[in-house]
Amino acid sequence: MMRHDDVLRAEELEYLRHNPPRPRAGRSAIESMGSANYWIAVFGEPVRGNAWAWLLTGHHLGASFTCADGRVTAAPLFLGAQPLEDLTRPYAGFVVLSHEAIRGLDVVNSLNPEQARVAVVSTEPFFSDVLTGVGRRNSLSRFEGLPASDLDAAQKKLLLALVDEYVRNADADAAERHLDAIQRAGIDQLHFSWRGPTNDVRSPFYYRLHGPRLIIEFAVQEPNHVHTIMRDPQNDYGMDWLGLHYEEHAYSAR
Q1: Which of 144, 192, 207, 210 would disulfide-bridge 104, Cβ 3.0–4.6 Å?
Q2: What is the SS3 string spanning the chain?
Q3: pTM for this structure?
Q4: Spatial distance between the Cα atoms of 121 and 67, rounded to a whole number of angstroms
C-alpha cells in the first residue's frame, strides 16, 4: 500500500505539472500522499493489564488494533490502492488487492442463475466507494443479497476463503478470535451481494459480505483504484471487550 502511494503521488504530481488540478487532488492533497505520510498513533498506556489501542494510518491504509485483557481485535481495517498494478521498476507487475477481487469473483461466478438473481442486486456498480467508511459505522442497517444458508458446500468453501482473505490480515490470535466469533454468530447468517459486471476484474464493481460479526466491502472506484473495508459490527475498536474490561475493573475497584 505504502509503495503504491509513492507511485500515485509521483503520477499525480506529474499530471499537475501539465494540467489543472483534479477534483480533491490539488497540490496540498497530493503532497499528503506517499509512504512518508503514514503515521502511528497510540491511545492509552501500552502496559500489561491496561486497555489501549494503536492505529496505523495513511492515504490508503487504516489499521486499528485494540488490546484489552490480553486480547487483540484488528477491526476496522481499511485497505485501498491506486494504482492496482505497479508498472515501475523494480516492482513492475506487482498487483495490490488482487486476491480480494478474485475471491469475490469466485463466489459470484459460482452461483447458479436462481442464486445470482438474489445476490446480484444490480448490473451497474452504483456504489463508487465503501459505505461504512470513517464516521459511517452504522450506515448498513439491514442485510442484502444471498444468505449463505442458500449456498451448497462448495460455494460455502469459496465464501469462507473470502472471509479468510480479510480476517487473516491480522495476526493468528486476533484472526482466530474473530473467525470464531463469526462462526458462533452463524456462517449461514452471512449475506453476499454484488453490483456491476461479474466477468471482468478490471471493470468497476462492488461487493459486500455482511453478517452479525462481519462487514466486508470492496469497491472499484475506477478501473485502477480500489477501496476495501472490514468491520466487526459488535467489536469494532474492541468495543465489546472494552465495555467488559471497564465493567470488571470498575467492579473490582469498589
Answers
A1: 207
A2: CHHHHHHHHHHHHHHHHHCCCECCECHHHHHCCCHHHCEEEEECCCCCCCCEEEEEEECCEEEEEEEECCEEECCCEEEEECCCEECCCCCCCEECCHHHHHHHHHHHHCCCHHHHHHHEEECCCCCCCCCCCCCCCCCCCCCCCEEHHHCCHHHHHHHHHHHHHHHCCCCHHHHHHHHHHHHHHCHHHCEEEEECCCCCCCCCCEEEEEECCEEEEEEEEECCEEEEEEECCCCHHHHHHHHHHHHHHHHHCC
A3: 0.87
A4: 38
Taking the C-alpha atoms of residue 248 and residue 242, their distance in angstroms, rounded to an integer, is 10
CA gap 2, 62 in Å, rounded: 11
Q: How far apart are CA 121 and CA 102, in angstroms?
A: 19
Backbone phi and psi for residue 241, each to the nearest 5 degrees, phi listed first: -65, -40
Task: Please say whether the beta carbons of 185 and 85 come within 8 A.
Answer: no
Peptide bond into 223 cis (omega under 30): no
Roughly what angle, to the nearest 10 degrees, separates helices 98-109 and 153-167? Answer: 160
Interatomic CA distance for residues 241 and 144, integer angstroms: 28
138 burial level (CB within 10 Å; 0-12, 13-18, 19+): exposed
d(CA 206, CA 191): 14
Which tens digit of pLDDT belongs to each residue from 175-189?
Answer: 999 999 999 999 999
| pLDDT, tens digit, 9 for 90 and up, residues 72-98 | 899 999 999 988 887 776 778 888 899
Backbone angles phi, psi at 192, to 5 degrees: -115, 130
